[in-house]
Amino acid sequence: MQSLASWLTDWNALFGQREWPVYCTADEVNIYFVRPNLFNSVNLFHFLCLFLHRCCPWSRCCGMGDFRPRTVWLGHPEKREQRYPRNVINNQKYNFFTFLPGVLFNQFKYFFNLYFLLLACSQFVNELRLGALYTYWVPLGIVLIITMIREAVEEIRCYLRDKEVNSQIYSKLSTRGTVKVKSSGIQVGDLIIVEKRQMHLRLTSVAHSSPPLPGSCFLRTDQLDGETDWKLRLPVACTQRLPTAADLLQIRSYVYAEEPNIDIHNFIGTFTREDGDPPVNESLSIENTLWASTVIASGTVVGVVIYTGKELRSVMNTSNPKHKVGLFDLEVNCLTKILFGALVVVSLVMVALQHFAGRWYLQIFRFLLLFSNIVPISLRVNLDMGKMVFSWMIRKDSKIPGTVVRASTIPEQLGRISYLLTDKTGTLTQNEMVFRRLHLGTVAYGMDSMDEVQSHVFSAYTQPTHDLPASRAPAATKVRKTISSRVHEAVKAIALVHNVTPVYEANGVTDQAEAEQHYEDTCRVYQAASPDEVSLVQWTESVGLTLVGRDQSSMQLRTPSGQILNFTILQMFPFTYESKRMGIIVRDESTGEITFYMKGADVVMAGIVQYNDWLEEECGNMAREGLRVLVVSKKSLTEEQYQDFEARYVQAKLSVHDRSLKVATVIESLEMEMELLCLTGVEDQLQADVRPTLEILRNAGIKVWMLTGDKLETATCTAKNAHLVTRNQDIHIFRPVSAAGDPLFLLHAYEVHPSSTGHSQFPDCVDPRASILWDGGNDVSMIQEADCGVGVEGKEGKQASLAADFSVTQFKHLGRLLMVHGRNSYKRSAALSQFVIHRSLCISTMQAVFSSVFYFASVPLYQGFLIIGYSTIYTMFPVFSLVLDKDVKSEVAMLYPELYKDLLKGRPLSFKTFLIWVLISIYQGSIIMYGALLLFESEFVHIVAISFTSLILTELLMVALTIQTWHWLMIVAELLSLACYIASLVFLHEFIDVYFITTVSFLWKVTVITLVSCLPLYILKYLRRRFSPPNYSKLTS
């Protein structure tokens, strides 16, 4: 139940998190790959689940009580043991009956809106009425109508979107064959066919799959966890052997799934087929699931729906993004409170000067009404409209194409950034990995010596010298042979220990029958969960050992001579962020040897490999060069050792309770005394113009912090390459803190952790003028918690950019976003807000002078249309045209980022500038009113004509005085407002003597009063620019 804006934010927050489970789990649609006839985008079901949770607070009535494990029978939703949430979304805030009261409540729950409502309602009391009712109700009504129109448009959009999503058609297997069903009609237990590019709902395990690989499918999860590379998903083995997908309805089988939880990277369940002989019982893991917010990349899949509605993990991980209020809005609210205090004080002073005579308490209320203009009702409307204009300017800037504004309420915050916390991979860097270094301990190979590696690999497969007895080879040959053998073993290990899958495409269409059969190099594309993996496999191909085929049980390598090496994949241990390593057990079909290969981060591999004296030192050296280091090792296993391990491993995987712990314990029994083969180093290159952009930010006074999970040496090197720190700058390293008495303990308490705990710690540890710049789906929580979140559309998908307040396509665009648009938005909003306040204080000062002269009477100076027209058609357009003003050109703002530094002090809107505008308002209001009283003739209506005309002209001239760079729309606004006032005089005979305003006496009196009120200010402005010019004035001359 959210507006369109928050719905779009939820769309982003919905997509899952890699490190911060607070935001997204992909279990929305748990699909058992019953048969891969269907690969589609899992996003739809995810949304359905999220919105169901939002729209139905009465969860127990919908069967959404305590979360429990469930047994789901394939194709028989009627056998369910408990009630599950419906697959329906409702993203609307209101319905037909609650729209009007809901909008009114949301408007008047704030003090100042309620204040203006009470003012308008007070006019129904005769003792408090000061004039026509429309004087107070029309301005309030205009504000409410604009708000209702905006809310109505958002509600209609939400309704149409909800209707479209709920009406999506899917194919379902049933006893009547394949039938069409709306997404809102899908239930837990249904067998749904998910097709390529179709929006995927809520399936959980893969029961059956089709090409590209028999019994498997590829999944894109960029909108779930921020990773754009494809991931391999596997079906339930026994269902894959069924002749057709329809046979799934003929077997007695069910899935036992764990209770819904927030972990998107793990799943525990079992698949049981009761009518088998003997009965089949298979374990299910994350590899058998399709989560919502993922897309089937190729093939088709049949899956069984396991979780829906509130039970979806993405829903459980999604929290409502906080409503962000910029520092500028807080400052304006503070000034508004001061104005309200002034309103009360002035009213009390007026009554006190009457010596509290008569019913003085009624007089207090009348003066509160009389001086209500001190608190301008149009301030909020003008600022909101200004924010919309600033957002539009950002989107239309051709020099930062693709920039999107999703939080149109805080564009001024871009002009107040003091700290920038930025990600490294994908934000400062391109997230495109290039292999740079192979280190064997005694010898290292860089990019300039890869031909030596290639020759060693070539000789290992073409020369039979390694089969000869050592005694028949000379000593020198034996040494060369040893180096060659080590290089060959390292390259072979790198070519085997990964999760990369070669995909063959012909003319853009996957064609296994031809391209894969001949292993066509031109048709082969590598897909993996990490660009590091792909870069390593591409490197082994460049040195002669090519990965040409892979499925869930085998792998094929091609040697430089064209020979195909076949390996059977016995076990696969994927990389996790907890273990920081991955492993694979393979059997060489030509020799029967069983080998356990493993690679991972040096911090975990150091305790796994055999003792050596070079690992730590060389890892540090490579990291200091900016390389990401992986340690590769192996361990040979006998058949008996492997059979013992497999028995224990299968038993652990079938466990329902503490499965992860038991599986990890079994795997760790192999991870001992492994042979260290090599170190690999890959480089993630910087994005374009990162260095000059960081230089601009530094000169603008913005402190940039780079947050990364890389090794300290790698992060330091990247920081120096990006000129985040200078080459000779000292870098302070904080040692680990364990004791509460340590002086650094308090500092560590304010760390920003990129994990699930960082979500709650972040708001308290960063300056309120901090910005977050991130690119990954796992970075959503940091972005949403920041005061100003900026997302980069990078290799890790669009989730971060979708969840951000602002999104850019490249890091270098951040400079113009802040230096030009942020600076202009803040300065223009400051000028606009202060001028709206000045406009209100002017007329309030005139009212105070008028009441004082006439014995403190609570009689309004202006009534009816005059008071309404003053803040609308007579002055609205010139005042609002200030959103087009600028002090310097955008090129100058980019060339001199030091101009941005001045904004960090908050000088455009401060108590000092506020006080100056208050004094100007009092001066001009007093001059106009006293001048009119001094020069008026016999009729009171002449006072109104002289003072009001002088007031309008003064406001128009003050706008001209404030403008620094004229825009043609500003001139149009000035002339249009003046024309509207002159034209309306014909219809204002009730308030103004039409004949009098055509006389020379009227004209000279108005001219004199206007000159006296404005000319001194023009002179002061000239003197100030002459003797104390602002910083930018020299740049504009």
Automatic annotation (TrEMBL):
Compartment(s) of residence: Membrane
Catalytic function, reaction form: ATP + H2O + phospholipidSide 1 = ADP + phosphate + phospholipidSide 2
Record: residues binding ATP: D423, K424, T425, E533, F575, K599, R628, T708, G709, D710, N778, D779
The P-type ATPase C-terminal domain, residue ranges: 802-1029
Enzyme Commission number(s) of this protein: 7.6.2.1
Sites where the protein binds Mg(2+): D423, T425, D775, D779
GO cellular component: endosome; plasma membrane; trans-Golgi network
GO MF entry, a single one: ATP hydrolysis activity
Annotated membrane topology: Multi-pass membrane protein
Gene Ontology biological-process annotations: endocytosis; phospholipid translocation; retrograde vesicle-mediated transport, Golgi to endoplasmic reticulum
Active site, renumbered: D423 (4-aspartylphosphate intermediate)
Domain of life: Eukaryota
Bilayer-spanning residue ranges: 134-153, 338-357, 363-383, 836-856, 862-884, 914-934, 940-961, 968-988, 994-1020
Catalytic EC class: translocase
Domain P-type ATPase N-terminal: 76-136
Keywords on record: ATP-binding, Magnesium, Membrane, Metal-binding, Nucleotide-binding, Translocase, Transmembrane, Transmembrane helix
Predominant place of localization: membrane
Pfam families: PhoLip_ATPase_C, PhoLip_ATPase_N
InterPro entries documented for this protein: ATPase_P-typ_cyto_dom_N, ATPase_P-typ_P_site, ATPase_P-typ_TM_dom_sf, ATPase_P-typ_transduc_dom_A_sf, HAD-like_sf, HAD_sf, P-type_ATPase_IV, P-type_ATPase_N
Names of the cofactor(s): Mg(2+)
Similarity comment: Belongs to the cation transport ATPase (P-type) (TC 3.A.3) family. Type IV subfamily.
Name of the featured protein: Phospholipid-transporting ATPase
Lineage: Eukaryota, Metazoa, Chordata, Craniata, Vertebrata
Gene name in the database record: ATP9A
